[in-house]
Design a protein that fits this description.
This protein has two domains: 11-95; 114-197. The relative contact order is 0.07. The protein is mostly helical. The radius of gyration is 30 Å and the shape is elongated. Helix 1 packs antiparallel against helix 2 (37-54) and helix 6 (131-151) packs across helix 7. The chain is 54% helix and 0% strand.
């Protein structure tokens, strides 16, 4: 629905640097239309001075003035023909968007252990028996117990940990529950931490 006299931001042209607002964008657009080069230069300097006053806390940062001129070049899409006091080639690097990072969509059998635990299970499967594997087994088993407590509202079973560890390491790691000592885990602390996050 479009009503006369109503102008919505969603219908306007997208701002290059939204932190400076539409007024600065309009000033830069106007500056580009000035034919006299000296007048255009003065206008650009005035715009930079206004941009500087908008964020006085940034004035202490290194290369502050250079950044303002870089931002002016960005807002004008590098079309503002003036004598820049600094080299604005660096602004072009700022303007280029980084490549999108693909989100790893790995399917894991059970969510409560998480992807890192399944990487640990894989590592345990490939490790030779010895002190290093025993230490990793201890760390993994204790983390599994914490995960179970966290996800199953306080109920956790040592046999479930041993069973899952054997299952997800293809039987390579067998916990002897008669000799294996789990760390003392404060279930209330884990569940309270979970409530605070919410």
């Amino acid at each position: 629905m479009k009503l006369d006299g109503l102008d919505y931001n969603t219908q306007r042209e997208k701002l290059v640097l939204p932190e400076y607002g539409r007024t600065i964008q309009n000033m830069v657009d106007y500056c580009m239309t000035i034919e006299d080069r000296d007048e255009r230069q003065k206008c650009a300097e005035s715009i930079v001075a206004i941009m500087d006053r908008m964020f006085p806390q940034n004035s202490a940062t290194e290369d502050h003035e250079r950044k303002l001129w870089d931002q002016l070049a960005l807002i004008s899409d590098f079309k503002l023909d003036i004598d820049y006091p600094f080299d604005i080639s660096n602004a072009k690097k700022i303007a280029t968007k980084p490549e999108a990072i693909e989100y790893p969509m790995k399917r894991i059998p059970v969510r409560h252990y998480g992807n890192l635990m399944f990487e640990a299970f894989k590592k345990l499967k490939d490790m030779e028996p010895g002190e290093e594997r025993d230490e990793l087994t201890k760390i993994v088993a204790n983390q599994m117990k914490r995960d179970l407590i966290s996800w199953s509202h306080g109920s956790c079973d040592d046999e479930k940990v041993a069973s899952d560890l054997a299952k997800f390491t293809d039987g390579k790691i067998q916990l002897d529950l008669d000799t294996f000592q789990f760390e003392k885990i404060n279930e209330k602390e884990i569940n309270n931490g979970k409530k605070k996050k919410k």
